[in-house]
Specification:
single chain, about 110 residues, mainly alpha, Glycerol uptake facilitator protein
């Protein structure tokens, strides 16, 4: 698995798990509805941990381009190593938004 694909999959999993937790807490008729910010925070924490575990061995889990940018400014990564997480984040966010828009438009429960 190359670095770009690892970051793409990692960011997609992070966004899907994190948004899924928020949707379960906020939306009506869910089992954990109105459970509060603690559940959302724990869910995002588990989402980050799972994503780092999935992609860390391939790419170093640079899921936040700001961290990679700071490492580039500090001199620990090259410019090429800074560009791939940024581009993979942009592509994976677009895929995630498209996935959720497909799910929302095909909702037959209403």
């Amino acid at each position: 698995m190359n670095i770009f694909l690892a970051e793409l999959i990692g960011t997609m999993v992070l966004i899907l798990l994190g948004n899924g937790v928020v949707a379960n807490v906020v939306l009506a008729r869910t089992k954990v509805g109105n459970s509060g910010w603690v559940v959302i925070t724990a869910g995002w924490g588990f989402a980050v941990a799972i994503t780092v575990y999935i992609t860390g061995w391939v790419s170093g889990a640079h899921l936040n381009p700001a961290v990679t940018f700071g490492m580039w400014l500090y001199g620990t990564v090259s410019r090429a190593q800074w560009l791939w997480p940024t581009s993979s984040l942009n592509v994976s966010v677009l895929f995630s938004v498209r996935f959720w828009s497909i799910l929302l438009t095909n909702d037959t429960t209403t």
